[in-house]
Amino acid sequence: MFFSARLLAAKTNVAILGAAGGIGQPLSLLTKLNPAISNLALYDLVNTPGVAADLSHINTPAKVKGYKGPDELDAALKGADVVIIPAGVPRKPGMSRDDLFNTNAGIVKSLASAAARVCPDAHLLVIANPVNSTVPIVAEVFKKAGVYNPKRLFGVTTLDVVRASTFVAEAQTQATGKAIDPSDVKVTVIGGHSGVTILPILSQTGLSFSQEEVDALTHRIQFGGDEVVKAKDGAGSATLSMAQAGARFTDSLIRALNGEKNVVEPCFVESPVAAEQGIKFFASNVTLGKEGVDTIHPIGKLNAFEETLFEKVIPELKKNIQKGVEFANQA
């Protein structure tokens, strides 16, 4: 596992909103295994007492309690240091992340309103899609409540990097005939968290690719989620891989909050990286610290192909962000 034994004495309270869902259950399991967590509050509309009872039998320090229904939401959030939001409906074949917007936007807005009221200083990790729009929704809700801290709001884009490492390692292994461990492959992924807004910077990996390989890898990283949606044949979207990515980001954040240095993860945050293009939120590598966001890294040099991709990111991402802002500010 990626959990650090050095944090056994740490005391972190985590709430997962949507804990009984396809992402929520494996995410809850992985989070229960983290020795740095002292209390784990699981919230959903149904089934959370059962999920909590099941997980409570695992011999790790975290105390687990399930909360069910809107009347118990405030209790689930009370005292939370970290709030993870995987709640929402999954994608189905033929659906884009934007197709999820009308349902998931309302869910996220409601949950964010409760968090702003009950645990305004918590760090919020948004997994609910479309992340390019749901993160701005949370930001607007917190602004209206007068408690917004951009250092404590994250869109979890870790899965894009996890996929990129896996796909690049597979391609390099096939091309060279030498087995490559995916965990040793580091790919910077910037932009957003859907389709063409996902921009893998393959030129910065130090590896050699033909243009044909670059084209194929870029498309697969951008639309890797579609592979899972299609393979599950209407039964859901990426849940297990997303849960692992969410647990990894949660662990990285907790380690940074507890003083570990040089913890870097990709995430979608309020950022100056694309400010010149009128983009307020952007995904890039971020050094995490005791207050959440510590340092937002520049994207570095792009080659001509990546510059072309970047130009495609901007209008789509701008539209996604504005959609979230407008939804949040509806009466």
Automatic annotation (TrEMBL):
- Which terms in the Gene Ontology molecular function aspect does this entry carry? L-malate dehydrogenase (NAD+) activity
PANTHER family reported for this sequence: MALATE AND LACTATE DEHYDROGENASE, MALATE DEHYDROGENASE, MITOCHONDRIAL
Residues bound to NAD(+) are 18-24, 44, 104, 127-129, 242
Which Pfam families does the entry mention?
Ldh_1_C, Ldh_1_N
Q: Which CDD domains match?
A: MDH_glyoxysomal_mitochondrial (cd01337)
Q: Which residues bind substrate?
A: 91, 97, 129, 163
Organism whose genome encodes this protein: Caulochytrium protostelioides
- Which PROSITE patterns does the protein's record reference? MDH (PS00068)
- GO cellular component labels: cytoplasm
Q: Which residues form the Lactate/malate dehydrogenase C-terminal domain?
A: 157-327
Task: Tell me the subunit arrangement.
Answer: Homodimer.
**Would I find Thylakoid among this entry's keywords?**
no
Quote the protein name from its UniProt record: Malate dehydrogenase
EC number in record: 1.1.1.37
Please tell me which top-level EC class this enzyme sits in.
Answer: oxidoreductase
Keyword Membrane found: no
Q: Reaction catalysed?
A: (S)-malate + NAD(+) = oxaloacetate + NADH + H(+)
Q: What protein family is recorded?
A: Belongs to the LDH/MDH superfamily. MDH type 1 family.
The active site annotation covers 193 (proton acceptor)
Give start and end of each Lactate/malate dehydrogenase N-terminal domain.
Answer: 13-155
